[in-house]
Amino acid sequence: MKRILIAAAAVLIMSVSASAQINLGSIVGALGGSSNSGDNSAGSLITSITDLLSGKGNLTPDKITGTWNYTGSAITFKSSTNALSNLAGTAATAAIEKKLDQYLAKVGISQGLFGFTFNEDGTMYVKYGSKTFNGTWTLDAGKSVINMKIKNLINMKGYAAVKGNNMELEFDVSTLMKLIKSVTSMYNQGTLQTINQLLNQYDQMYAGFKLVK
To answer: Which residue has the higher pLDDT, 4 or 147?
Structure first.
């Protein structure tokens, strides 16, 4: 068992570039069997995008409607063939989310400044600081997908998981980057490039936001 854990840790370490600056020590520690129930990622609502696509989300429009405020980033790996997929919900994803949180904060996506509102009549808006971007939304409950059309921004397909007043809303990386670039156009392009590099280090990764109502 130890050999398996060490091998898994080695694969993970090799997959992370030095530019990401992820705390590998905490990742290796998690592989050794330690866990922290208070970890932001340990209680992840999304166990895999495959679960969502199979219709296990059990979403209904009433679970989506309301105002959802950003509390942090969220990532999920799509396939069990990916080297990191089995680490979803552990310190591995938490380390990546922590770094992504830091970069998003630098472009104004942080608690109290960013979020989504989904209205019963199918209208919605994205809040970014003092700005709001209006649009419309529909729910594909069978796939746990929220289809969003944001005026003057982007049409988006977000995978959603909801439990009570908590939501994880995730996108494929290219869609997420289009959203981030659209709302944060005033910010330094170097930071946006760094976010893009971080997200594109891993194959079949979905990324987005943890939200609370």
So the answer is: 147
Q: How far apart are CA 107 and CA 104, in angstroms?
A: 5
Of the candidates 158, 165, 174, 163, the one whose C-alpha atom is nearest the C-alpha of residue 209 is 158
DSSP string, 12-80: HHHHS-GGG---HHHHHHHHTT---TT-TTTT-S-S-HHHHHTTTT---HHHH-EEEEEEEEEEEE--T
Least confident segment among 24-38, 112-126, 149-163, 198-212? 24-38
3-class SS at 144?
coil
The mean pLDDT value for 25-45 works out to: 36
Per-residue model confidence as pLDDT tens digits over 37-73? 333 333 456 665 555 555 556 789 999 999 999 999 9
- Residue in the block written with tokens 């969502």: 52
CA-angle at 185, arms to 110 and 145, nearest 5°: 65
Q: Which residues contact 207 (CB under 8 A, 6 or more apart)?
A: 73, 74, 75, 76, 100, 170, 171, 173, 176, 199
Cα-atom radius of gyration of the chain, to the nearest Å? 17
0.90 exceeded by the pTM? Answer: no
State the Cα–Cα distance between residues 96 and 18, nearest whole angstrom: 13
Q: Total domain count for the chain?
A: 1
Domain residue limits at 74 = 2-212
Q: Is 108 left (phi over 0), alpha (psi -120 to 50) or beta?
A: left
Burial of 98 (0-12, 13-18, 19+ CB in 10 A): middle
